[in-house]
Amino acid sequence: MTVTAPAMSTQEGQQDRIVNDFAIVAATVNGSGSQTANNTLIRALFKMGIPVSGKNLFPSNIAGLPTWYTIRVSKDGYIARREGTEIVVAFNPKTASEDVAALPSGGVCFYPDDMKFASMRDDVIYYPLPVKELLKQVNPSPKLRDYVANMAYVGALVEMIGIDMDEIIAALNYHFQGKASAVKLNLAMVEAARNWARENLTKQDPYYIEPMNETEGMMLIDGNSAAGLGALVGGMTVTAWYPITPSTSLVDAIAEYAPRLRHDPETGAATYAIVQAEDELAAAGMIVGAGWAGARAMTATAGPGISLMSEFAGMAFFTEVPAVIWDVQRMGPSTGLPTRVSQGDLLAAYYLGHGDTRHIVLLPGSMQECFEFGYKAFDLAERLQTLVLVLSDLDLGMNNWMTKPFEYPTEPMDRGKVLTAEQLRDIQDWGRYKDVDGDGIPYRTLPGTESARAAYLSRGTGHNEYGIYSERPEDWQGNLDRLWRKHDTARTLVPQPIVDERAGAKIGIIAYGSTDGAVQEARDRLQSEGIETSYMRVRALPLGQTMTDFVQKHDRVYVVEMNQDGQMQQLVRLHVPERAVDVRSVRNCNGLPMSARFVTEGIREQEQH
Amino acid sequence: MTTTAKPGGRPANINQIGLTQPDYHGNPSTLCQGCGHNSISSQIIASAFDLSLPPHRVIKMSGIGCSSKTPAYFLNRSHGFNTLHGRMPSVTTGATLANRTLIAIGVSGDGDTGSIGLGQFKHMMRRNIPVVYIVENNGVYGLTKGQHSATADMGQNLKYAGVNELPPIDVCIEALVADCGFVARSFAGDARQVRELLKAAMSYKGTAVLDIISPCVTFNNNDESTKSYGYGKEHEVRIQDLQFIQAFEEMQIDYEEGTEQIVQLHDGPTIKLKKLDRDYDPTNRWEALRLLEESREKQEMLTGLIYINESRPTLPEVMQLTETPLARLAPEQLRPTREQFNEVMAELM
Q: Do residues A294 and B96 lie in contact, with contact meaning Cβ atoms separated by under 8 Å?
């Protein structure tokens, strides 16, 4: 068999080597098992000490539609989505032409040699792979053929860009949790492809992998798993949920780890309950009922679920019941793009419910925060006796991110102001909704408290300080005023923004959630162009004094976000109205994670005007 | 076979836990005078007193509507949650998972259960949530001034809404096909039967559904309405004569084979069913369905214990939850140890 790769127009072998600073995209068919190949690649690269990030761009489909998995290697440690990839694995005939067309000049294409291109680019290096021949050698059972076929590109990449084979083996062992037959079969394909490439392909591209020492002591995890672990460490006792992309794997993580972490060692009984509800309405009702009765209750959902939960969100706010909703955001409105990322639920979450409703909203921006907010959300919900929404997103929740291992919590749980029967004995005049401490947070009792004075009736209707039905204007107004006082208390209790001010910076960047990586990279680029920036990453609503100070210190601020309406920009403008015109927006809403280029260009362009 | 109950050594107006009936009272009702719901509230008070339920262990749950206001009118020493329209089942599910030792009494109406809450009603029964679920059924929306509800019989004629042309949803049939293990129907005008059924339901371990025809004196009490007092007085047909017998008094139950049937509940109490006109076995689900279909065709007000079967586990049992309520677990039971946690971290590396 002979293979001829189209010759490059540039001088082969004489170009500069590009090491650990490029991106690879694997274009495959959804449901073909390419996830194993991609996970193996990214873990092997990560274990070689190279900073990596993986972004899975997948369709809302069981099998058959195109999917793209991008792995970025960055010696400088940048992890945001990169616009443009240098290497494409074109394993999906339906998208191959487009995938190749998207390559930059000098890009590289790996493809199965039986795939026909209408035309070949002469500025692209093609590496054809005899996938069918290799499959014959490896000879997997028919139902595993498609899965194993994908390992061909792993083997070819190992050989052509220099990935450490030992790390591939280790990654396969990790992926299959030591299941020897699966490791053996997949490894056979990797080795067959690698050997074939060694004998038949000539390296013509400049892209190389070299070991580094930048990931020592770190791990790769997705935000949904991090959140699930955080919830279990945080004493979650009731999870009620309804399956919805991209939040499902959050509850899967809870269900996976709970049997190990949360069973009574003596009796073996569960110290938690997980209920798959009939819909998101019921899921929300269950966590409100559980929170009311004293459980640490949560659900995980996405935009359409939030819509259905709005009536209980309003009720939790008004009856002052602690509960936690994780909203792993996907693109809306409506069903939207179920498998694409957005930050479009910010305003909906903050104001979820009719009437004047406001909630605590946490905005994790890293794996560490997905984990931490997993337990802190319960502390805040119980301290403030209210609903806490945690807005993650598809990029954080479902993609692999590098992180330091999580720390075991140092603080004890905060169960909030709950009165026991003994405490009630010493209190002359207990009213469920009385503001005794002046912070707007009343004292509650739990059902089952053995006291003739503990009981009260929770209701979504107007009530006085004792929970008795009331339509009196002063009762209603007084109650709402107290709820607003409580919201002000929340400003000081929620995770505060992280601020990085640079000397001489006239402009500030405000961002939150999964855009952090893109903003950090963009700041470095802007700095190299002579534009110095300060940066504030918001971690919760309501906004507080730090936001006011940050806006006041800068000539202009740019709010970076992924939604159509500039939702955080609107909140910042409301928060610092006297500077509203100086609060500008850099936003995209196309379903793709934020990139450094988009942020850089967005700010540069507005600075030039 | 005869024995009599051992005479108790306490005065009749004090129950086993030393409480009087007023200790089970609520606030004064704000419903219309004569409303069927008020008599049901009275029977809830009487039943809880008779059974010596510890008020602090009871939770009173409701949805939205006239019926759902009533938890304010009984058991003031019990926590309560007047939830959202049709959503009481889900809130009760959460509450009983959080604390499996609570005794849940839910009050709903025909709109709350038969229309907006039908889905949650069915799923509550499917999960066998431990709750006494009372439907105060009057066939009409009262708070919005007189629309037909989904349980209104064909031909029900209302001043506001005219004649109902659609067939009714039968709460008891819905309960039966959802595998509910305690299904009963009663009439608010039949206080004794309501009380006996309530006591049986409060002693049953899973979901117990009581569909109680409870006339709306303001909007739907013409004698020709199948949900009126007049109609009930004329047309109520009792399936059996029933008597609830508590477990705490050591006794042998005297019954006549052939005309009486004994149903034993899980921790001792007994329901004695005396046969009336028909030979009916309430442990047979097929018979129960047939009976309901036949009585529906006849527009009978058929009351009594329609079906009982305590074999299905409740949700907390299915989930094998700790006996200690989840809400009462100590922090060290809720947070894994540092060693357990570090083990997971090590695996992720």
A: no
